[in-house]
Write a structure and sequence with these properties.
Strand order of the largest sheet: 2-10-9-6-5-3-4
Distance between the termini: 22 Å
Bound molecules: pyridoxal-5'-phosphate
Helix content: 25-40%
Number of strands: 17
Radius of gyration: 21 Å
Shape: globular
Largest sheet: 7 strands, mixed
């Protein structure tokens, strides 16, 4: 089976983990700090807090922004459930903005319209969470203008988008947002096994996020309410969690980060291969940089979702590909269609573009170590599936 996504682990990755295992500290040692510093350097943000998953990072980010009961977070329905769940975990409510037909990211037109209505009804969101779907950056400039106009925070779910660029800046440098979150799950751009990071340019937000991911406890004298009683002394200032990343995981992440440019070029090469080889088929291919020269953005090519012509044939094409041992997948069933969200009152038809997209989408395998032979196998199977 050629899976839809897969980590690439090198000998140097393995060595970096083994080195930690042979060292004195396997958690809360020096490597987490080094990884955080390297992430800041790579994407150009001032602060980063690495934690045990992107889901944890989204939760601490929402909490640091003060999201709580009575507040509303808006996000894209075309995302993994964790995007919306993070707000529910804070006691807030969630609403969804339909996606753009071409990029499958949150639609700025739909967002603009929804904000006008929400302002009239006094139901503006406290936080907007754009999701850079498949690695293609959202319209961050337009989103920032709306954020300034209506006074909401912007929290980027960049789980797919480490290494993507937008108008000359890196996703993660928070030029247009308060916080940006990355995932280091094995199918994502780099991996720590499980892991995630929250990037920000606000020192206050970074302190809050670090506090919440570490039991609400600090040893930082600058944050304490009284003067330290000695080297043993720590203070709990809030209630928090243990969302920390271990040095074992951070060592893998740090070494993987050094391989990021290779990963991005391999992913881009595989995507180009698909664009060329699938161009003549009756499919809609993912948004492609060459068709959007004025967008000034580059994708990290996390996913390669193709759209078949109608929902009627999606099932048969999907099953055919699986029968040929191609590990295709579907990203995503609109989050509000999940039973949990339906129980909150969301109904079919709420975001028609996201629903139409979902019914026709199939994600083809895309990861750095895909060989040309494997890409050919996928291309032949897709071609045969449409005969
Ligand atoms: C993978 C993913 C997450 C969750 O990441 P974890 O690191 O597995 O917690 C959140 N949002 C999106 C869009 C994702 O793809």
């Amino acid at each position: 089976m050629i899976s839809y996504g897969k980590q690439s682990i090198s000998d140097s990755d393995i060595k970096s983990v083994v080195d930690v295992l042979r060292s004195d500290l396997i958690t809360q040692g020096p490597i987490v700090k080094n990884f955080e510093r390297a992430l800041c350097q790579r994407v150009g943000a001032s602060h980063s807090v690495v934690v045990n998953s992107a889901t944890s990072a989204l939760i601490v980010a929402c909490k640091a922004l003060g999201l709580t009961s009575g507040d509303i977070l808006w996000t894209s329905p075309n995302s993994y459930v964790a995007s919306a769940n993070s707000a529910i975990c804070c006691g807030a409510s969630v609403d969804f903005v339909d996606i753009d037909k071409e990029t499958h990211n949150i639609s700025t037109e739909a967002l603009t319209q929804k904000l006008i209505v929400a302002e009239r009804e006094g139901k503006l969101p406290k936080v907007l969470m754009p999701v850079h779907f498949a690695g293609w950056p959202c319209d961050m400039k337009e989103i920032k203008i709306l954020a300034d106009k209506y006074g909401f925070y912007v929290l980027e779910d960049a789980s797919h988008a480490l290494g993507a660029t937008y108008k000359g800046s890196n996703i993660g440098d928070c030029s247009y947002s308060d916080i940006t979150v990355f995932s280091f799950h094995p199918v994502k751009i780099i991996t720590t096994g499980e892991g995630g990071a929250a990037m920000t340019n606000s020192e206050a937000l970074s302190h809050k996020m670090r506090l919440i991911s570490n039991h609400g406890v600090t040893r930082d004298h600058r944050l304490m309410t009284t003067s330290s009683e000695g080297a043993w002394y720590y203070e709990q200032l809030e209630v928090g969690y243990n969302f920390r990343m271990s040095d074992i995981h951070a060592a893998l992440g740090l070494n993987q980060l050094g391989r990021l440019d290779d990963f991005l070029s391999s992913r881009s090469r595989a995507a180009e291969y698909y664009y060329n080889m699938l161009a003549q088929l009756s499919l809609t291919l993912p948004v492609h940089e060459v068709n959007y020269p004025d967008a000034h953005r580059s994708s990290s090519h996390h996913l390669y979702p193709i759209l078949v012509e109608s929902s009627d044939i999606r099932r048969s094409v999907f099953d055919f590909l699986r029968s040929r041992d191609i590990g295709v997948n579907v990203h995503y069933l609109p989050i509000y269609m999940q039973p949990f969200y339906r129980h909150l009152g969301f109904e079919e038809g709420y975001c028609p573009v996201a629903e139409d997209y979902y019914k026709r989408a199939i994600s083809l395998p895309l990861y750095p170590d895909l060989s040309t032979g494997q890409l050919d196998t996928v291309v032949s199977a897709v071609t045969d599936s449409l005969l």
